Amino acid sequence: xxxxxxxxxxxxxxxxxxxxxxxCAFMPLLMAGFAGFMVWQGRTLPPEAQxxxxxxxxxxxxxxxxxxxxxxxxxxxxGEKEQGTLEPLLAxxxxxxxxxxxxxxxxxxxxxxxxxxxxxxxxxxxxxMMPGGIPEGVLSLPWLLSIFGLSPFMALFAALVAMLISSRxxxxxxxxxxxxxxxxxxxxxxxxxxxxxxxxDLRFVALEGGILxxxxxxxxxxxIKAFRREEILIRWK
Amino acid sequence: MIQTLGLTRRYGERVAVEDLTLxxxxxxxxxxxxxxxxxxxxxxxxxxxxLAPSAGEAYVAGHRVTREPEKVRPRxxxxxxxxxxxxxxxxxxxxxxxxxxxxxxxxxxxxxALALVGLAERAEEPVATLSKGLRQRLALARALVHDPPVLLxxxxxxxxxxxxxxxxxDLLAELSLAHRAILLCTHNLAEAERLCHRIxxxxxxxLAVGAPAELKARLFGRRIVVTLxxxxxxxxxxxxxxxxxSASLDGAKxxxxxxEPERHNPLLVRRLVELGAEILYVEEEERTLExxxxxxxxxxxxx
Lengths: 237, 303
Fold this sequence. Notes:
heterodimer, A: mainly alpha, 12 helices, B: alpha/beta, Rossmann fold, Alpha-Beta Plaits, 2 domains
């Protein structure tokens, strides 16, 4: 209940900032545009060459769920500190877990909706662009699982890292500088994908999913431990 | 409703609050006075369950702040020095958010709290458009929306212009009529005198606590000022009354400290007339809370 209240308040506040709205809309559209452009360029290639190109384009939809929460999540705590709104919030019965999880979901849910939304748009565009439709075997189960099954955990990872940075940062500029770090660990499997060091199969997706779940749980635990109410109140006048 | 027992808080080597023992009963307003850095905000934060004491214990609405901060928080309304409102949200959105966090299910409570602080008409306006005084009123509404038995107010009129400060004070005067325990931290001595049943002077340690009149009597005694028609040198020396603690003359004003003015004043006046003094006025000397405060704080500094 309190989690839902916190999430709705954060959205009401966040989406009143036009720059946030624009940046949230711009980044997914840009990524989908890049992906679409790649497919457009490869439309005349033989079908066997189109597959790898199409897969490379899909990587954009694995980067998006990481980039958006990193941007949205980083302001969550440091912003409250700067506005002086954290003390009344901490005086409520809200627990650290609710606060951390709630503020993470604020960043994760829009990131997923936007990612999946522009992915749908991308598929529609591909159907129009490619006379033969989507190359066979490209939208395989492991890829679909990556985009729909792994992206929530990737987004949560990025949001939790951003939150961790946000709760420890001394000001918002420093927090934004460090927020880029949220993306780095999640890029590792993407590099593996794109370099085709490993085949994108169910085993790989399951392994990645397992690692992400473990990382998310560890980060949530670490984030709550590192969220020191007293220190925040004393250091932030 | 609020009770502290040897409450102490240290920040590293620095002691912010030391061995604070006091009590605020239901229906009582206790003013916490003290210079900057005296530990007022730290005390409020400890009582709100936001800071853990380094030693001692505090009970708020029957719960120990050290063991049950999660039970203390819903029973306390806090107005911090900075109202800490979400400026992009409207007045109603701010209040509804906190009401829901406090588990207030009835939306009428939000409207009642808005009406109480006189903000019902401006409920749909963003907080950013409100004046400082109105923001402070909204912070008060936020502290009251869950109807807590304990209110902790940390300098609620600080930084407000006189008119806005008066509005907030009037509101606090109304609130103090309800059956709540209120701890009011303030620098404004007139405000404390007007609103508080008792005053506690804090300078890391508790220097004194009591009703304003009690503190004045305790520190300065009760002095009678007798205005004479003309100066009468030597009069203090010949008064010779057992209930007179001290007497001094300043021009045509005779200052006499007596034990019980209500009983002893007629005897004093009779004796003065016998001695040939021509009396124009007899009144009790008015000591201000400022004098009490300065006496305590500067006395502590000298010690």
